[in-house]
Every structure is written in structure tokens, then in C-alpha cells.
Write a structure and sequence with these properties.
single chain, alpha+beta, seven-stranded mixed sheet, 13% strand, globular
Length: 710
């Protein structure tokens, strides 16, 4: 006979087992008796309609916390709608659970909560539902470190009810935007791709009527990567250098065996897996592997160490305001240009009457375009094959230190050095920037026209400016010594300063347009909106602005990471317009992969940087006229001034009314306006420049626009 201890042990074991659900057929009967569709139930439980179908036909079972919520719902329905027509017993109020639950019974008997994603097409009229009662939010509680946004959310595309992306953890939970959690049963990469395209409901609509929908993004935690057969880290010199799995790796073989393909970049931190599109439906999934450094610390500070739900929130906000990440922030910046200015649009063939793909005016088209020789890099085939020796454009950001012998005694006695950093200066330069859209044409001794984008060979060495300011014509601020190639904005600024310019040679473009305008507008709105969420708005006065900027990173680390990613998207996107060759086996004169892109446009990069540098000099010059102050150094978009106090309020020019004087530096959150910046990094940069090193390549998170691949 069993002892009392043995019996109690057996009972405890039963109590500790997972909650038992009724048979699949009974689950379906109870739902139908309640008049609830599978789509509505899926929306309330934050899962997919297909997943609910799987539960009701016995193909899969829910996991915690959905398991407890689903069981609680079924128990409530069973009391109301018992089998064989027996009368329903009155349902007593259910006490709230101690742990946070995914849903409550009220969720299924009232209207959908405002935060819930849009359901798939319903299977029964809404009038058949149970009586309406106020609903509670059907989202999973967000992490305490990243409180949920309260701002109104855009309408959800019914094709992508669960947002643009999900972060998959090792237990099969896929964390999406707005607290949604999906069950992912995949145990291999091909199964994950199939689930993402067939069941997940992930993706994002196109940003332009002629563009393409964004492919769904699945971010893998280290645990998820290992579960799917991937190494937690890429080990070995060759793999770390190339950042991809070898061709004979089992996962790569699995992908090929399942008739999926990888892009030329292979299976790396940002792997794209695809099949040929079927009609209008793309078959492509983007993967990002956290433990392989997919989210670079400089562009996404602290994000890779966050919890999966918080990572989903950060990437979700970025996807909503910028674009679903397709790779590094530099890659995403370039992809955003194309997404907003698609190269083609449908047009009717006058001969056949059929719709065909035609050129989209204002875009860069579908074919790559070789630059003019002075716009290219020394290793470019245009230069090597032609034997070009006529020099190159050198439109780069400032790296200038004022000569010590130009400092006055009064300046040397000032106790502070204050740094002003322009908010996204290169983004501000892209506004209303006219660039070339056609191939360059060569002109000898043309008359200068500031409205024509291109490259001009001009002698500006005769122009003499105040030595206490950097020259606006060179990145190091030194005076030109003879003829050199300049972008249109640089030459136009010489004219603005009152000097005659007589070009010797030029490569100009006949077709022009403001190609970057939609790119600028979207990124500007993303930057300003994110700063506003962090408490930095355009309605603050200068003192309030400085106080808010000092604390904004502590307000919400997740949104602070989004802000850093937006800034990196600007700089990286501009830099990628002149991506350099990579790999030790490259030989000069060979074409490298980036040259096959229509967006390999060093002339557009030069135009952005030229305008940004000219804008900086214009402010420096106006500041000198208004205040008599001259900078100590300029690095990219940061300038350091001597100051009697520790705040820029101690030296910035203000009118008698208290308003900032126009023309000089002004504080504010808008791109092109200034914010207070520490000078420690600037002093380090000065030290590097004195040693002949490029600060932009040594300072973590430096603001200079560097070519990708350097």
C-alpha cells in the first residue's frame, strides 16, 4: 500500500505538469459556439491565423504564456457552451493571475484593442460575436527598460499584420513590434524561411508607389542561431575576415538542398535567402545574426545586449521611421535612396499595348554609370585604362587646426574651449541638392554656371581669406596652391565671396534633379521625431534645449539607440556612394562589385560634402563678423571655440530681443542646427592630425563620411 508521502508526491507532480487543453476538435467547437473567428482569436493572442488552425487540427500546441491564456479562454467557453446541449453553468469572476498574462477573457468578447494589429480577413460576420465589452490591450507587457510608445501608430497593412520584423530566441518565441510574440516551430534555416513567408505575417509595404515591399527581417539571438545549426560565433581567421560561412557548411548545404539561394555575400551576419519571384510575390527573407556582430556597436549602441523584445522595439521603430534594415546602417541608407526613388515604373508600350518596365524620371535608372576621370578613385578602371593624370576631386569634410601663432593673447587667456556639433550636417546639405542624373560630358574652358552640377578645374589660389579661418576650398583648410578640381558648390562659394572664377576644364551633367530630396525628408522626420520622443523638441528655448540634450540618452536607451542609427544611416549612406574595393586580392583596374550599382555615384557624394563644408565655412565667417570670434579647430561637422564660460550661451550671438542672430550657429534639434559637444574627442583628433593620421578612421563613431570599404 502506497504511503501518504508517495501519494502527495504523485499529486504534486501532476500539479506541476503543463495545463492540459481539450482535444483539437473540442477547441474548434468551443470557438465556433462563441462566434469567434480564427482570425480574431489569432489577433487577440498575438499569433497567426495559421497557428490557430494548427492548434485546432492537432498539428501543434501553444507554448507559455499563450498556453495559459488559451486554456483560460477555453475553460470560460466550456462553461458557457457545454457539449450535448446541457445548460451552461454561471461563470464566476476569475481572479487576476499573479504573473502578467498575454490576454484576458475580456479580450475576446469586446472590440479589438487600439494597439492590436489588424486581423486577417474574418471568417464570420462581426455581428455573430459575443456581446461587446470594453477591451484590454492584447499585447505582451514591454520591458521595463523600454516603455511602450504612446504616439499614434500608422495603419497596419493587412498583408503584414505582425509588422516588419521579429527577433527569434532559442525557445521558438519570435518577438515582434508592439509587444507581439509569435510561435516559430522552425528547427532549420529552410524551415525558418518557409515559416516567415507562409505564416509569420511579417513584412512592410513599399515606400514609393513604383517600389517594392520590404522583405521580412528575422533577427537571430545567439541561442536561436545555435538551435538552427549555426555557430554561435564565426571562428577562424578566414571566416572572421570574410564574415561568412564556408560553402561546405551544413546550413549552407541545407539552404541549397531546399532550392533556396544566397546572395553573392554568402551566409554572413546579414544573410539574404531567396527564390525567384513568382509573379508579383517576392520570395526573400533577410536574416541578421546578433552574435555575429550584425548590429555594430557604433551604429546601434547597446542594442545587441538588450532583451529580444527590446531589440524588436528598437528595430521596429527604425523600420517604421526609416526602412526595414537590410544590412549595416550604410547599406540601409543606400537602400532607402532606391526605395524612395525606384529606378523603374510601369508604362504602356505604344506598339503592343502591354505594360512594360520603363525609366522612372528623377531616379538613377537601372544601369551603372562610369564617373568622369577626376570624380573616380585612382584604382577605378576609367582612370587606370585611360592613363588619367589630371588630378582628382578632393571634396572631403574639414580636418583643420588653427595655427598657434594666429591665436591672440585674449584668446589664450579664455578659460574654456566649447565644442559645437551640427546636427546631421550632411543630411542638411542633402536638402534641395541638385545633382546630375545623366552621364558626364567634357567641356573645355566653359563659363561657370552655379546651377549645373559637375566637376570644374579652376585655379582658386589667388583668393586670400582670413588665416584665422580654414580655407573653404580644401579639407585641411590650407590655401590652394594652383588649379584643382572642385565640385560646383565649392566654386559657387568662391563667387559668393566676390571672386571671379574662370574654369579651365569641366565634366558636367545635362540632366539634373533633386534626387536626394525624399531621402532627406524621411530621415529628417525620423531624426526630429525621435529626438522629440526623447524630450528634445523645437519648442524649447536654448537653455531648455541644452538641458534636454544633456539628459536625452538616459530618457530611453532604446530610442537613443534609434537616434544613433539614424545618424549612422545618413553618414554611411553618403559614404557608400563611393564604396572602395575590398579584399587583399584586388588589383588596380579591376571592376569591383559596388561598381555594378547605379548608386555608385562619387559625384553625388562630393556634392553633399562640398555643400556641407561650404555651409560650415559660411557660419564660421558670419560668426567672425558678428562676434569677432574665431575657431580653434574644425573636425567634420564639429567646431571648437574659445569661450569665457562652459556653455555656448556664453559666446553665441543673440539679438537684443533674446533671439539668436541669423547666419551664425544656432542651437536646436533640427538638422543643420548646433548642439553642445564635448571637446575631448576633438583634442584627440588634433593629436592624431599632428601625427599625420586620419581622425575619422580612428575615432569611434566619428562623424566624418568615410567610403565603405576603407
Amino acid at each position: 500500500m502506497a504511503s501518504e508521502e508517495e501519494l502527495f508526491a504523485n499529486i504534486d507532480a501532476l500539479l506541476e505538469e503543463e495545463p492540459q487543453l481539450p482535444p483539437p476538435a473540442e477547441r474548434a467547437r468551443l470557438r465556433e459556439a462563441a462566434g469567434i473567428t480564427q482570425a480574431r482569436l489569432a489577433t487577440a493572442l498575438k499569433t497567426t491565423t495559421q497557428t490557430v488552425k494548427n492548434w485546432e487540427n492537432g498539428r501543434s500546441e501553444p507554448k507559455s504564456p499563450r498556453l495559459e491564456a488559451y486554456q483560460r479562454l477555453l475553460k470560460g467557453w466550456a462553461a458557457k457552451y457545454p457539449a450535448h446541449g446541457t445548460p451552461a453553468a454561471p461563470v464566476a469572476p476569475v481572479a487576476p493571475a499573479a504573473a502578467p498574462q498575454l490576454v484576458t477573457p475580456e479580450t475576446f468578447t469586446g472590440p479589438a484593442a487600439p494597439e492590436a494589429t489588424a486581423p486577417a480577413p474574418v471568417e464570420a460576420p462581426a455581428a455573430q460575436a459575443a456581446p461587446e465589452r470594453p477591451a484590454r490591450p492584447a499585447t505582451r507587457p514591454a520591458s521595463s527598460r523600454c516603455p511602450a510608445r504612446k504616439a499614434a501608430k500608422p495603419a497596419v497593412d493587412p498583408r503584414f499584420p505582425h509588422g516588419p520584423l521579429a527577433v527569434l530566441d532559442g525557445d521558438g518565441s519570435a518577438y515582434g513590434v508592439d509587444g507581439i510574440v509569435l510561435d516559430c516551430p522552425a528547427t532549420t534555416i529552410p524551415e525558418l524561411v518557409e515559416w516567415t513567408l507562409r505564416e509569420s505575417g511579417l513584412g512592410a509595404p513599399k515606400l514609393n508607389r513604383y517600389g517594392k515591399d520590404s522583405d521580412p527581417l528575422i533577427v537571430l539571438t545567439a541561442a536561436a542561431a545555435v538551435k538552427l545549426g549555426l555557430p554561435e560565433r564565426l571562428e577562424g581567421h578566414e571566416q572572421r575576415r570574410s564574415l561568412r560561412l564556408p560553402e561546405d557548411h551544413p546550413v549552407v548545404k541545407q539552404v541549397a538542398k531546399a532550392k533556396w539561394q544566397l546572395t553573392q555575400r554568402g551566409f554572413g551576419p546579414w544573410a539574404r535567402i531567396y527564390r525567384k519571384a513568382q509573379g508579383r510575390d517576392r520570395q526573400c527573407v533577410q536574416l541578421a545574426i546578433l552574435s555575429w556582430d550584425a548590429l555594430d556597436e557604433r551604429s546601434w549602441p547597446g542594442v545587441s545586449e538588450m532583451e529580444p523584445a527590446d531589440i524588436a522595439r528598437v528595430l521596429g521603430v527604425y523600420a517604421q521611421r526609416v526602412i526595414t534594415p537590410r544590412g549595416s546602417t550604410a547599406v540601409s541608407g543606400l537602400e532607402l535612396m532606391t526605395a524612395l526613388r525606384p529606378p523603374t515604373k510601369p508604362e504602356r508600350d505604344p506598339e503592343t499595348g502591354n505594360w512594360v518596365s520603363g525609366h522612372n524620371p528623377g531616379s538613377l535608372g537601372t544601369e551603372p554609370m562610369d564617373p568622369a576621370p577626376p570624380e573616380a578613385t585612382p584604382e577605378h578602371p576609367v582612370v587606370v585604362q585611360s592613363g588619367w593624370t589630371g588630378g582628382f576631386l578632393n571634396e572631403e569634410a574639414y580636418q583643420w587646426v588653427r595655427p598657434v601663432n594666429s591665436l591672440s593673447d585674449e584668446e589664450c587667456l579664455l578659460p574654456f574651449a566649447v565644442g559645437l556639433d551640427l546636427n546631421t550636417a550632411f543630411l542638411a546639405a542633402a536638402a534641395r541638392l541638385v545633382v546630375g542624373l545623366s552621364a558626364p560630358d567634357h567641356f573645355h574652358a566653359p563659363k561657370f554656371n552655379p546651377k549645373i552640377p559637375g566637376s570644374w578645374l579652376v585655379d582658386l589660389s589667388h583668393i586670400e581669406l582670413d588665416p584665422r579661418l580654414p580655407s573653404p576650398f580644401t579639407p585641411d583648410g590650407s590655401r590652394p596652391t594652383g588649379p584643382a578640381w572642385y565640385q560646383t558648390h565649392t566654386v559657387a562659394y568662391a563667387q559668393e565671396l566676390g571672386y571671379d572664377v574662370h574654369p579651365i576644364d569641366a565634366y558636367l551633367r545635362r540632366e539634373t534633379g533633386a534626387y536626394l530630396d525624399p531621402w532627406h525628408d524621411r530621415l529628417k522626420n525620423a531624426y526630429v521625431d525621435t529626438l522629440a520622443d526623447l524630450g528634445v523638441t523645437k519648442y524649447l528655448d536654448d537653455r531648455q534645449f541644452l538641458a534636454a540634450m544633456e539628459q536625452h540618452k538616459q530618457v530611453d536607451p532604446a530610442l537613443a539607440a534609434v537616434l544613433a542609427a539614424i545618424k549612422a544611416t545618413v553618414k554611411g549612406g553618403v559614404g557608400k556612394l563611393r564604396e572602395r574595393p575590398q579584399g587583399k586580392h584586388y588589383k588596380e583596374g579591376e571592376r569591383w562589385p559596388a561598381l555594378q550599382r547605379p548608386t555608385w555615384r562619387p559625384d553625388i557624394r562630393a556634392a553633399v560634402i562640398s555643400k556641407a563644408r561650404v555651409n560650415m565655412h559660411r557660419k564660421l565667417n558670419n560668426m567672425a563678423k558678428m562676434t569677432g570670434l574665431y575657431p580653434l579647430a574644425v573636425l567634420s561637422d564639429c567646431v571648437v571655440y574659445p569661450s569665457p564660460g562652459a556653455s555656448p550661451l556664453d559666446f553665441l550671438p543673440y539679438a537684443a530681443s533674446g533671439k539668436p542672430q541669423p547666419g551664425g550657429f544656432r542651437l536646436g534639434p533640427t538638422p543643420g542646427l548646433a548642439k553642445l559637444e564635448g571637446v575631448q574627442e576633438m583634442l584627440w583628433a588634433i593629436d592624431l592630425m599632428e601625427k599625420g593620421l586620419n581622425p575619422a578612421r580612428h575615432i569611434k563613431g566619428g562623424d566624418a563620411v568615410q567610403d565603405e570599404g576603407e
